[in-house]
Amino acid sequence: MKTRVLLADDNKDTLEVLRRGLEWLNYEIIAAKDGIEAVELAISEVPDLIILDVIMPKMGGLEAASQIKNNPKTQVIPILAITAMAQPGDQKKCLQSGCDAYIAKPFTFEKLEAAIKRLLKDSSN
């Protein structure tokens, strides 16, 4: 059975590029266009991993991560924040909100895949 990844990004082009790349790596993708939809899909679909863009409309990724981690049904799902925010302290904000890891944009698929594998390995222990 394929690993299910919830991918949330408000940029359609970024979402499509990430979706195609992750599907090529043999992940099943569930897509969300904002933080509200990400929280709803996390609860209804309970994916193996969540990748959240930090800056999204309606509800940002940090608030979505916090809501996901505060829900008993979804609190153990690892969350990877992806963001253009790369200022000092941004990584700390992501981790404090409930994200388990952080990658600054732009990033390579190799770096993304390594972070995904690390998070999935850590969550299975």
Largest sheet: 5 strands, parallel
Order of helices and strands: EHEHEHEHEH
Poorly predicted runs of 5 or more residues: none
Q: What structural category do the secondary elements indicate?
A: alpha/beta
* Percentage of residues in DSSP E strands: 15-25%
Q: How many domains would you count in the coordinates?
A: 1
Number of strands: 5
| Rg, alpha carbons | 13 Å
Number of helices: 5
Q: Going across the major beta sheet, what is the strand order?
A: 2-1-3-4-5
| Molecular shape | globular
The name of the CATH topology is Rossmann fold
Proper CATH architecture: 3-Layer(aba) Sandwich
Residue-averaged pLDDT: 92
What this model shows, in words?
The protein is α/β, with parallel strands linked by helices and 125 residues long. The protein has one domain: 3-Layer(aba) Sandwich (Rossmann fold), CATH 3.40.50. It is 46% helix and 19% strand. It has five helices and five strands, in the order βαβαβαβαβα. It has a five-stranded parallel beta sheet, sandwiched between helices. Strand 3, helix 3 (61-69) and strand 4 (79-83) form a beta-alpha-beta unit. Helix 2 (35-45) runs parallel beside helix 3 (61-69). The longest helix has 16 residues, at 109-124. It is globular. The chain starts with a strand and ends with a helix. The mean pLDDT is 92.
Which structural traits does this protein have?
globular; five-stranded parallel beta sheet; alpha/beta; single chain; 5 helices; 125 residues; Rossmann fold
